[in-house]
Design goal:
Blueprint lengths: L1 H25 L2 H5 L9 H20 L8 H6 L6 H20 L3 H5 L1 E4 L2 E4 H27 L17
Antiparallel strand pairs: 1-2
Length: 165
């Protein structure tokens, strides 16, 4: 059970990462930092936010590294990283998180820790990160499709009309 949870959590993060990278590669540098309005974030902000969230929850909290996150800065940025730097940053963060998750024991998964003031188990922390990463990946994909008018073909090689048996 423990191994299945770990494997599926890693699978979901590693499935989402190339989607974010694909979107970054489809956008111009200006589009990466473009905001649809004053109350919305750019793709650049969302990537920085994902990096901050994954680092704080998984790498710092579960991996016991220092928590150096400045959350408000993730949303305040208007530039600062180009496409390649964003890809490198999010890829490195996800790889580090995968290593932390892979090394979790059953006791680690059940241990209660506090992150952002919320007490939660390691399982809850990992679920939060996977769900949060997926949520913002969808926002990034939506923005990319809207701006570029393209089909990202995330499932282009699969027949999603196959019925359950």
């Amino acid at each position: 059970m423990k191994q299945e949870f770990i494997d599926q959590s890693i699978f979901r993060l590693e499935e989402a990462l190339p989607r974010v990278v694909r979107c970054l590669n489809e956008l111009t540098e200006a589009q990466i930092w473009q905001r649809p309005n004053d109350h919305s974030n750019s793709v650049g902000n969302l990537v920085m936010h994902l990096c901050g969230n994954v680092r704080q929850y998984i790498i710092a909290n579960l991996g016991t590294m220092p928590d150096t996150r400045t959350r408000d800065l993730e949303f305040a940025m208007r530039d600062g990283y180009d496409r390649l730097q964003l890809i490198e940053k999010i890829t490195e963060i996800v790889q580090q998180a995968v290593e932390v998750i892979r090394g979790m024991s059953e006791a680690d998964l059940m241990k209660v820790r506090t992150v952002q003031g919320f007490p939660q188990t390691g399982i809850n922390t990992i679920i939060h990160v996977v769900e949060h990463f997926s949520y913002h990946t969808g926002q990034i994909a939506f923005w990319t499709k809207l701006v570029q008018d393209i089909d990202l073909k995330f499932y282009g090689d699969m027949d999603l009309n196959v019925l359950n048996k």
